[in-house]
UniProtKB/TrEMBL annotation:
Lineage: Eukaryota, Metazoa, Chordata, Craniata, Vertebrata
Chief place where the protein resides: membrane
Keywords: Antiport, ATP-binding, CBS domain, Cell membrane, Chloride, Endosome, Glycoprotein, Ion transport, Lysosome, Membrane, Nucleotide-binding, Repeat, Transmembrane, Transmembrane helix, Transport
CDD domains, sorted: CBS_pair_voltage-gated_CLC_euk_bac, ClC_3_like
UniProt topology in membrane: Multi-pass membrane protein
Name assigned to this protein: Chloride channel protein
């Protein structure tokens, strides 16, 4: 209610029907709080932003086009361009909400006039459901396409199917009658590169040729991916989730959700995954889905002209992205709510649920994995877990938290080094080097050579009678007294011990390479590599506990529930818990992560072990730093993101943070009726501020309102073109009534219509804790500081971020966009 009152207080009387948003579909992200341009150094003082003559300028929470005073102004028609936002700036949530209310009232007032108006009203009401339906359909279709293409290109590194070139290895051997149970992946239709090139299927020559071709294809895919990204869509690199979070908070990054980014990210994501780099496609699928949501929102005026409403579509799109990435519709909705969304009303919850449902339905219809499931590694365990097992589950949680803390620090340190050294100037070379090292080391180890999703599937899978993996090479104990389940716990064979050593090497390899891979200039997700690391550690722990229970079943911890010959321990379950713990340690997700993992695996019975491991990993990770990897990258890139999870407990006041400081020049202001057009143009040319407080006079300093640089520039240019008598010496008046002027004076220019008459203000004694809350909850870009009604200064979102960095003993300059 408090925020509603604030909305009404300043905006109820204002009409925005002359404000149009002339945004193209490249203007993708508009976000949360204040105008922020990080490309100038002077934007600290007033409204942050780049604003030189000839560039775009941003609006604050005013931009009031008052219909009652509009007729009195010389500008007697809507001004094109007012209401749009510039790149690397922030939207005004309050103003956007008021625009939407005005639009809604206008539609409701007309719907009874005719059947056509009623149809338009119904179309407007249903447009939200239509746009999320289209987003879900596109997200599901693209995810299915990416899954199929990535599987085929991954197998292309090892060989090709002669009978049907478009089949991957598994599909190629489906129809063969010449496969054996032990070697079900070998069939005459599938030829390795060694067989095709030198005619040898076995031997050192064959191994070396396959090794060379594996490296060749890995480097080719990686080079093609980074070249496409560099040339056509630089924003297509990375996972995209840090930027999506920033965009949903109100920030604008033009082109980040545009058509080119969508197309290049879809293509290069397939290439990056197929190259064998230690990355996943799940995070980038959220970016792909948000691109779809952004593009489809331009088909509906309700969303194309309102940046706050567009963010509701993007929240639903991010839910659809996780839904198709993991086959977890409910987890996707919770992920959007917990991890990425800044503003998540109940209506958005329903639409996110529906978008996730549609996307999952489309993906299931495509059936990209051929197993009638939404995911590759769906598993079903038949053995219940026991209370004692909580101890190793919690230990896996500790490992996940330690891994998360290590990864965040190491990856951020490497990314910062990349930004600050010459190495960052050669992104193509970096990708080629990382891909080459990965391919050379990965090929000899069967567990690192595998596609990461296939590796997780093998680690999750329980050992049944149909499994031929070396992880299931147990010795059959013919003396077991009782068979409780199909496959009782058995002593490990040589294959299991060999697999454990290979998994230990794979674990070290994955840990090191993931640190250097996340952040390179190709699409790179973090979910799958983190899950793979946890699954490897979990499987090793699971086998150890299983063997301990087998050889020491008379210990008191096993005696009560683990009989000889019973199937007590499920190593695959430990892999699943370890995967969740490591992903939780890196991202610090909790509720959504548990739901994603049990939807992913079908392990509904194992929610308690998952919850225990995920919470432990979060607590351990938080002990080393409260930031997850996405928040750390947001801070590294200097995006103006006020994290709601971050507490501000210092006792500073608004006067301590506002600008100008004692050593700064005085605040640049406009007076109500004492300045000429030339004075204002000179002020605009001499400063880079995005807006100016308007006061009654220099002597009184009484605050009248706030005018944006962009609005001033557009209004003056429009008046010069359309009104006679407007010259440089014309008096500019922001008051309702024009003061009396000498008869020979040129015609005055009234600009009251562009003045925000109710800017947000706080007193100089307002605690910063309250100011920070106001900025977070209302999405402000700036607020003015007064004392007894006299203007003292201004606080922008950037000032708050700088102050929070100082209170945390960080270098404030380190958070600014570079």
């Amino acid at each position: 209610m408090e925020s509603e009152q604030l909305f009404h207080r300043g905006y109820y009387r204002n009409s925005y029907n002359s404000i149009t948003s002339a945004s193209s579909d490249e203007e993708l992200l508009d976000g949360a709080g204040v105008i922020m341009d990080f490309q100038t150094s002077e934007d600290d003082n007033l409204l942050d932003g780049d604003a030189s003559i000839g560039t775009h300028y941003t609006m604050t929470n005013g931009g009031n086009i008052n219909s009652s005073t509009h007729l009195l102004d010389l500008l007697d028609e809507p001004i094109p361009g007012v209401g749009t936002y510039d790149d690397f700036h922030t939207i005004d949530w309050v103003r956007e909400k008021c625009k939407d209310r005005e639009r809604h009232r206008r539609i409701n007032s007309k719907k009874k006039e005719s059947a056509w108006e009623m149809t338009k009203s119904l179309y407007d009401a249903w447009s939200g459901w239509l746009v999320v339906t289209l987003t879900g359909l596109a997200s599901g279709a693209l995810a299915g396409l990416i899954d199929i293409a990535a599987d085929w290109m991954t197998d292309l590194k090892e060989g090709i199917c002669l009978s049907a070139l478009w089949f991957n290895h598994e599909q190629c051997c489906w129809g063969s009658n010449e496969t054996t149970f032990e070697e079900r992946d070998k069939c005459p239709q599938w030829k390795t590169w060694a067989e095709l090139i030198i005619g040898q299927a076995e031997g050192p020559g064959s191994y070396i040729m396959n090794y060379i071709m594996y490296i060749f294809w890995a480097l080719s895919f990686a080079f093609l991916a980074v070249s496409l990204v560099k040339v056509f869509a630089p924003y297509a690199c990375g996972s995209g989730i840090p930027e999506i979070k920033t965009i949903l908070s109100g920030f604008i990054i033009r082109g980040y959700l545009g058509k080119w980014t969508l197309m290049i990210k879809t293509i290069t994501l397939v290439l990056a995954v197929a190259s064998g780099l230690s990355l996943g496609k799940e995070g980038p699928l959220v970016h792909v889905a948000c691109c779809c949501g952004n593009i489809f929102s331009y088909l509906f005026p309700k969303y194309s002209t309102n940046e706050a409403k567009k963010r509701e579509v993007l929240s639903a799109a991010s839910a659809a992205g996780v839904s198709v990435a993991f086959g977890a519709p409910i987890g996707g909705v919770l992920f959007s709510l917990e991890e990425v969304s800044y503003y998540f009303p109940l209506k958005t919850l329903w639409r996110s649920f529906f978008a996730a449902l549609v996307a999952a339905f489309v993906l299931r219809s495509i059936n990209p994995f051929g197993n009638s499931r939404l995911v590759l590694f769906y598993v079903e365990y038949h053995t219940p877990w026991y209370l004692f097992e909580l101890l190793p589950f919690i230990l896996l949680g500790v490992f996940g938290g330690l891994w998360g803390a290590f990864f965040i620090r190491a990856n951020i340190a490497w990314c910062r080094r990349r930004k600050s050294t010459k190495f960052g100037k050669y992104p193509v070379l970096e990708v080629i080097v990382v891909a080459a090292i990965t391919a050379v080391i990965a090929f000899p180890n069967p567990y690192t050579r595998l596609n990461t999703s296939e590796l997780i599937k093998e680690l999750f899978t329980d050992c049944g009678p149909l499994e031929s993996s070396s992880l299931c090479d147990y010795r059959n104990d013919m003396n077991a007294s009782k068979i409780v389940d199909d496959i009782p716990d058995r002593p490990a064979g040589t294959g299991v011990y060999s697999a454990i050593w290979q998994l230990c090497l794979a674990l070290i390899f994955k840990i090191i390479m993931t640190v250097f891979t996340f952040g390179i200039k190709v699409p790179s997700g973090l979910f799958i590599p983190s899950m793979a690391i946890g699954a490897i550690a979990g499987r090793i722990v699971g086998i150890a506990v299983e063997q301990l229970a087998y050889y020491h079943h008379d210990w008191f911890i096993f005696k009560e529930w683990c009989e000889v010959g019973a199937d007590c321990i499920t190593p695959g379950l430990y892999a699943m818990v370890g995967a969740a713990a490591c992903l939780g340690g890196v991202t610090r997700m909790t509720v959504s992560l548990v739901v994603i993992v049990f939807e992913l695996t079908g392990g509904l019975e194992y929610i308690v072990p998952l919850m225990a491991a995920v919470m432990t990993s979060k607590w351990v990770g938080d002990a080393f730093g409260r930031e997850g990897i996405y928040e750390a990258h947001i801070r590294l890139n200097g995006y103006p993101f006020l994290d709601a999870k971050e507490e501000f407990t210092h006792t500073t006041l608004a006067a301590d943070v506002m600008r100008p400081r004692r050593s700064d020049p005085p605040l640049a202001v406009l007076t109500q009726d004492n300045m000429t057009v030339e004075d204002i143009e000179n002020l605009i040319n001499e400063t880079s501020y995005n807006g100016f407080p308007v006061i009654m006079s220099k002597e009184s300093q009484r605050l009248v309102g706030f005018a944006l640089r962009r609005d001033l520039t557009i209004a003056i240019e429009s008046a010069r073109k359309k009104q006679e008598g407007i010259v440089g010496s014309s008096r500019v008046c922001f008051a309702q009534h024009t003061p009396s002027l000498p008869a020979e004076s040129p015609r005055p220019l009234k600009l009251r219509s562009i003045l925000d008459m109710s800017p947000f203000t706080v007193t100089d004694h307002t605690p910063m804790e309250i100011v920070v809350d106001i900025f977070r909850k209302l999405g402000l870009r700036q607020c003015l500081v007064t004392h007894n009604g006299r203007l003292l200064g201004i606080i922008t979102k950037k000032d708050i971020l700088r102050h929070m960095a100082q209170t945390a003993n960080q270098d404030p300059a380190s958070i600014m966009f570079n």
